[in-house]
Amino acid sequence: MNERRTPAVDWRGEPFRLFFPLATVLGAMGVAHWMLYGTGVLPSYLASFHAVTQMQSFLLAFAAGFLLTAVPKRTRTEPAGGVFLGVLMLAIAGVSALELAGFSNAAQLVYALSIVLIAQFAVRRFVSRAAGRKPPASFVLVPMGLLSGLIGAVLRVLSAMEFVPSWLGALGRTLALEGVFTCLSLGIGGFFFGLALHGDPPPDIDKKPGETKKAAILAVAGLIVIASLVLQEKGWVREALLLRAAVCTSVLVSARGLKQPARPGVNRRTVWLAAWAIPLGLTLSAVFVNDRVAWMHVAYIGGFGLLAFAVAAHVTLGHGGDEAHRDGRPWQVIAFGALFTTAMVLRTLLGRLPDLYFGWMAATAGVWLLGAIVWAVFLVPRMWRAPVGEAAA
Fold first, then answer.
1. Which candidate in 10, 134, 315, 368 could, as Cys together with 204 as Cys, close a disulfide (CB 3.0–4.6 Å)?
2. What is the per-residue pLDDT across 109-159, written as a single tens digit (0 to 9) for each?
3. In Å, what is the CA distance from 74 to each residue of 85, 136, 340, 362?
4. Is residue 218 packed enough to be buried (19+ CB in 10 Å), middle (13-18) or exposed (0-12)?
């Protein structure tokens, strides 16, 4: 009698199964201290720890999981090795841990190492002679985003050591916290919109007339994003925010972002709405420039954060062969989308209610954490079991 074997989970070929759960844990760590501070458990607010963890650990882990899975599959090259995956996971988690311990310069250097590891992994596979395919045009923004993070980390360390002026240290912070995921969201989003939302996979950059020109235009868009961050640190805050909002809008429109998803599924609509939260948050921050930090959380929570969770959900359900949930209306997707949106709204109102500040902060953190729990309970078990069908978009 033949024994039926259960398919093994392909950790190397689909490392999102490792990095997406890691991202969720890191995000929870970065937000949980809001609740601890708001309820009086912590005596002080760890502002730098929160920002570094959310933007340089939590979101980077999601990006790593996506890129380390998608790049080898697209190029038909070797997946990442086990040692490489372990080192990168430790490095990304180490950024948050080192910042919490007060070793900010070390945290930035480890972040730079993480960026270099991801970048060389992708570049080596795309330029390899063994590569079966080339990247789509929108992926030109991916190395630009990673380079923004690398330069930002280096500038922060040099500024802390007083080797460069302090404004360059502030620019480094902005490059790492805003530049990276503005570029990555647009680069990955341009690819993801066509493939997942409309069922129209973008062509390789060398396979269709006009794709090289499109890549050049997107590269200019990336340069404008980075230039706007320089303008922002030189005092042209409102103008820089509006410029960045215009670039994001233009790139999304070029990726058919004005059209609602043609393919079914509430999660696809969540991806679509989250992408538009990025230029919306930038525009609101420009309009209410004196309250810019609060309004930027429309882009941070409703844009970058929700987009990461929704794309990760789509990848997990697709690679797990769970088309029914991917293309349907599971209550869990509706719930985590609503909870993260609620957390976004609560965060934008935080400074307007001084008498309720601490309780409001704890409530905001609690709603975000509840959204992360719903997401994790729904999806992490699916990541840790073998797929039941063919992976699809």
1. 134
2. 999 999 999 999 998 888 777 767 788 888 899 999 999 999 999 999 999
3. 19, 10, 31, 43
4. buried
